[in-house]
Specification:
Diaminopimelate Epimerase, Chain A, domain 1, alpha+beta, 18-stranded mixed β-sheet, single chain, 21% helix, globular, 6 helices, 294 residues
Length: 294
């Protein structure tokens, strides 16, 4: 019987028992596909990551799976937690070249910036520049989220499918009251996302730009088995691109997004739009460690 070390981290937070829960399994070689799926189901978190350093390719590699059996990519909490784990455990896996580091996910090299805040690693991951892929009829979104049409009146903005590594639907709502009362219909959400070619729904509302927290958000992605995620870096990056494209936020400026409040797992995601991509940043903290038997 083989044993693997695993860790549970709270991601996009510097406080234990907040943020988005992530299991990270330290592997020394690739597992069989069914083993990834079964282990992810066993943990039951929105995603489980499997990480190892490839001596052949000289890079830290991460793969992530949902309990529903989907492999996911993108620079989100699944990648941030794995990188933070390596740093917290002082695994010297990151090759420094011209002051930049990289990690590999699904054969894509993701640039990193590594600093420290509050005694924890603070990691920035660069997503690709935002691509805008159309809108969805508001009537469909209202029906699938249990909201009224007037709940989507925010600055006259339309919803928009936005892609960096992954396509998600940015859904502006009028205020935090509307955001809180959304009740997702998983079946309808899955039908609409499949019809229009995107994954998750990022409902958000805004604070004043002078507020330390720019936006409050909720994320639903039942198509890959995620009912509501406390932190979704893969959607926060597209939101930054969406807002910058509207001229609401500036390039090369840090903004914070609050997510997870309504599932009692508050998470803070920092975003920054650059000319060549979107930086998504945060910290993680280890809360559990154990042995996995396979």
């Amino acid at each position: 019987m083989k044993q693997l070390d695993y860790y549970v981290l709270d991601v996009f937070t510097d406080q234990k028992y907040e943020g988005n829960q992530l299991a990270v399994v330290n592997i020394d070689e690739e597992l069989e596909p069914e083993q990834y799926y079964r282990i992810a189901r066993e943990f039951g978190y929105s995603e489980t990551s499997f990480a190892h350093y490839s001596t052949k390719d000289e890079i830290f590699k991460v793969r992530s799976f949902t309990p529903a059996g989907f492999e996911v990519g993108g620079a989100g909490h699944n990648l941030l937690g794995a990188v933070c784990l390596a740093l917290l455990n002082k695994w010297d896996f990151f090759k420094i070249r011209d002051e930049a580091s990289w990690v590999e996910m699904k054969d894509i090299k993701v640039p990193l910036k590594i600093t420290e805040q509050n005694g924890l690693p603070y990691v920035s991951m660069k997503q690709r520049p935002a691509i805008f892929n159309g809108t969805v009829p508001t009537e469909l979104i209202a029906k699938a989220t249990g909201l009224r049409l007037e709940d989507f009146s925010l600055n006259g903005w339309d919803n928009q499918i936005v892609e960096t590594e992954t396509s998600h639907l940015m859904v502006p709502v009028s205020n935090t009251g509307a955001l809180q009362k959304a009740i997702p219909d998983k079946t309808l959400l899955k039908q609409v996302s499949k019809q229009y070619g995107f994954e998750g729904y990022y409902l958000f509302t805004l604070n004043d730009t002078s507020d330390p927290v720019l936006a409050a958000s909720r994320f639903f992605n039942p198509g890959i088995g995620i009912d509501e995620d406390p932190a979704a870096g893969s959607a926060a990056g597209p939101l930054a691109g969406y807002l910058q494209g509207l001229g609401y936020i500036q390039k090369e400026h840090d903004y914070k997004i609050l997510q997870g409040t309504y599932v009692n797992r508050p998470s803070t995601i920092q975003v920054n739009v650059a000319d060549d991509g979107i930086w998504v940043s945060g910290s993680s903290i280890i809360v559990m460690k154990g042995k996995l038997f396979i």
